[in-house]
């Protein structure tokens, strides 16, 4: 089970963006990162398109997902 609460890079609140996980201090859903990467965007393009998101936040999310994949193998 994922425990996004352990990541400082993300947050969620029922009052913001319908309660979905967003990059901290933004309204950018974490899902937007994965959708853009799936559709062929680079991290650099994502950061350009969503200027409130910091590279360290993206790296934290991606590293967390890699760690979770290793745990489930």
Describe this structure in words.
The chain is mostly helical and 73 residues long. The protein has one domain (4-72): Orthogonal Bundle (Arc Repressor Mutant, subunit A), CATH 1.10.10.10. Helices cover 47% and strands 5% of the residues. The protein contains three helices and two strands. Strands 1-2 form a two-stranded antiparallel ribbon. The longest helix has 18 residues, at 55-72. It starts with 9 loop residues before the first strand and ends with a helix. The mean pLDDT is 92.
Outline of the structure:
By secondary structure, the protein is mostly helical. The chain is built from three helices and two strands.
Please name the defining characteristics of this protein.
73 residues, mainly alpha, two-stranded antiparallel sheet, 3 helices
